[in-house]
């Protein structure tokens, strides 16, 4: 199997390949972690993997899934992947920037819900999760590894300076739980920080809202100037709402984003819609 330390070092040496920082390349080299990821997928599932790297997770997924569509931006890695995974008829490697993929069309192609798996490239964690969550109706689960500090924002609902629209989106669409923490020593090259794998289970009944785009436009507007009051942020973004209307739904008009929960945004939406 590809995902052991010795095998990874062999592959890197064989192809004289050096991990590229600009693509956030840290290769997972701990088989027990890969096993835990595979245990989370169901037999016969369709998997989209984002950032296949050297194929450590890809190969293990293919032994259980019906099909693995693996995206990798780095064409040098794609050559290695094609060679090392050539015996797997159910792996499709695509050399493309996942952020440019027409995900809706891809998901529409399958007549079952798809599972997303990624040891996320850290520099685009937010963009990828946002993109994937916007297609929640065609997805059943996201298994995503990210920096521990970023994972904390989802599991502990932290509202510090990095509090984001994505946290609200995740609360709306998913039940989030931690699968396991992953020490930085389980990667080649060793990153500066530890990681954690989270499971974003898409809620069956998340569709509480008719116009989700409007809901998240309201959330985005509220976050537009984080230190300003929600009320002025909403008004400045063209949403017509007055202090009394906020008071009527139990929201203090002088609140800042840190003081509001998903339920508050849903109430504001109901006033505006
Ligand atoms: N899955 C492998 C593993 O666990 O060992 C590699 C994980 S590494 C943290 C992230 C991978 O994502 C790298 O291989 C990198 O080249 C790839 N990547 C970075 N940006 C990408 C993008 N926009 N689209 C697709 N792949 C990307």
Would you give an account of this structure?
The protein has 273 residues and is α/β, with parallel strands linked by helices. It has two domains: 5-202, Rossmann fold (3-Layer(aba) Sandwich), CATH 3.40.50; 212-272, rRNA adenine dimethylase, C-terminal domain (Helicase, Ruva Protein, domain 3, Orthogonal Bundle). The chain is built from twelve helices and nine strands. It has helices spanning 5-14, 31-39, 56-62, 75-84, 103-108, 125-133, 148-155, 165-173, 212-223, 230-236, 243-248, 262-272, and strands at residues 27-28, 46-50, 67-71, 91-94, 114-119, 139-147, 174-182, 187-188, 195-202. Helix 4 links the parallel strand 3 and strand 4. The radius of gyration is 20 Å and the shape is elongated. The N and C termini lie far apart (53 Å). The structure holds S-adenosylmethionine.
Top keywords for this entry?
single chain; 273 residues; alpha/beta; Rossmann fold; Helicase, Ruva Protein, domain 3; seven-stranded mixed sheet; two-stranded antiparallel ribbon; 12 helices; elongated; binds S-adenosylmethionine
**Number of continuous helical runs:** 12
- Low-confidence stretches are none
CATH fold annotation of the largest domain: Rossmann fold
Strand element count = 9
Alpha-carbon distance between the termini?
53 Å
CATH superfamily of the largest domain: Vaccinia Virus protein VP39
Q: Over the alpha carbons, how many angstroms does the gyration radius reach?
A: 20 Å
Count of all domains: 2
Series of secondary-structure elements, N-terminal to C-terminal: HEHEHEHEHEHEHHEEEHHHH
Q: What profile does the largest beta sheet have?
A: 7 strands, mixed
CATH architecture assignment of the largest domain: 3-Layer(aba) Sandwich
In terms of quaternary structure, the protein is single chain
- Helix amount, in percent? 25-40%
The top-level CATH class of the largest domain is Alpha Beta
Global mean pLDDT: 96
Q: How are the strands ordered across the major sheet?
A: 4-3-2-5-6-9-7
């Amino acid at each position: 199997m590809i995902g052991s330390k010795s095998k990874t070092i062999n592959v890197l040496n064989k192809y004289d390949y050096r991990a590229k920082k600009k693509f956030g390349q840290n290769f997972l080299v701990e088989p027990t972690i890969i096993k835990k990821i595979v245990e989370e997928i169901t037999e016969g599932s369709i998997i989209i993997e984002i950032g296949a790297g050297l194929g450590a997770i890809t190969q293990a997924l293919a032994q259980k899934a019906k099909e693995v569509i693996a995206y990798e931006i780095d064409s040098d890695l794609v050559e290695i992947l094609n060679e090392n995974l050539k015996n797997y008829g159910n792996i499709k490697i695509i050399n493309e920037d996942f952020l440019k993929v027409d995900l809706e069309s891809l998901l529409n192609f399958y007549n079952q819900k798809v599972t997303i798996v990624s040891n996320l490239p850290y520099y685009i964690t937010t963009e990828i999760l946002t993109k994937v969550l916007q297609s929640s109706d065609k997805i059943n689960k996201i298994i995503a590894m990210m920096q521990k500090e970023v994972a904390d924002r989802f599991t502990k609902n932290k509202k510090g300076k990095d509090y984001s629209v994505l946290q609200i989106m995740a609360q709306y669409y998913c039940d989030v739980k931690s699968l396991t923490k992953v020490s930085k020593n389980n990667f080649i090259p060793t990153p500066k920080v530890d990681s954690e794998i989270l499971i974003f289970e898409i809620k069956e009944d998340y569709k509480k809202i008719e116009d989700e785009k409007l809901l998240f436009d309201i959330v985005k507007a509220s976050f537009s100037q984080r230190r300003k009051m929600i009320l002025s942020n909403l008004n400045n973004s063209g949403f017509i709402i007055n202090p009394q209307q906020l008071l009527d739904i139990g929201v203090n008009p002088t609140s800042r984003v840190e003081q509001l929960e998903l339920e508050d945004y849903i109430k504001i939406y109901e006033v505006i819609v």
